[in-house]
Amino acid sequence: MPPVDFSPLENAEFPAFEPGSVWLVGAGPGAPGLLTLLGYSALSRADVVVYDGLVNEAVLNWVRDGAVLEHAGKRGGRPSPHQADITLRLIALAREGKRVLRLKGGDPFVFGRGGEECQALAEAGVPFRIVPGISAGIGGLAYAGIPTTHRLTNHSVMFLTGHDSSGQVPSAVNWPQVATAAPVLVIYMALRKLPEIAATLLANGRAAEDLVAILSNASLPQQSVMETTLGALTDPEVSQDLPTPAIVVVGEVVRFRGEIEWYGPALRSSAMG
Ligand code: SAH
Fold this sequence. Notes:
By secondary structure, the protein is an alpha/beta fold. Helix content is about 25%, strand content about 20%. Strand 6 (about 155-160), helix 6 and strand 7 form a beta-alpha-beta unit. Helix 3 packs across helix 4 (about 115-125). The chain is globular, with a radius of gyration of 20 Å. The relative contact order is 0.14. Bound molecules: S-adenosyl-L-homocysteine. S-adenosyl-L-homocysteine binds near residues 107, 111, 188, 189 and 246.
């Protein structure tokens, strides 16, 4: 048999990346191989890449020679630029006629402010496109051996954020409803407020024995997973030293990890994820 010629990008018909437009691209949870092919092709065509702190910088090796890289996240202890400044920057670059790639961790439209950036671009009359990515709340779970749904445990899942724009546990969340609304809760940005969130969920009817997994650096070589229970989490010591970024999974589905866990040191030696 002749060797298989696997060059998926050569024949793919990707949309044109027009000068003066902005593409919001999801980089996935961390492992470089989890970027979509459209995202990969966009990286190789962009003039400027404006990337967030959570983006694995390994994917920036895929930009073309001469492309400009701009970091728009926290770095070296300096505060992150304000959202409004980032948005103005995107608009200015597009108006200079650049192909602007806005690279965000996970999926740009899942707790990533992608919606806000698109609203501003639309208002400014700048053409844009969204390239979805694998969100940490799905891809990260896969790397921890936790199916987001499983017929034996849950027919629904709820994604929520552990803090709002002021850094507090979001008061806009209807906790009495949320606590028992879905058998599985996937909580982004939860680590700092975890004792408070756990106590709130318990006070609103969630069981203390409910299983919890805290996934740090999911899909990256330094991935670590801590398993505990909701009741135990009210003690700040249980979660305070865990590495970030971290995502929290609450629910019976966590127990499948015992059987399905697959991402170990042997597999991690593969650089592409
Ligand atoms: N748009 C992103 C989420 C941005 S909010 C997405 O779709 O994944 C940032 C939060 O995402 C972090 O606080 C953490 O809760 C989660 N997160 C992102 N990458 C992660 C990773 N590799 N491991 C664990 N959590 C991650």
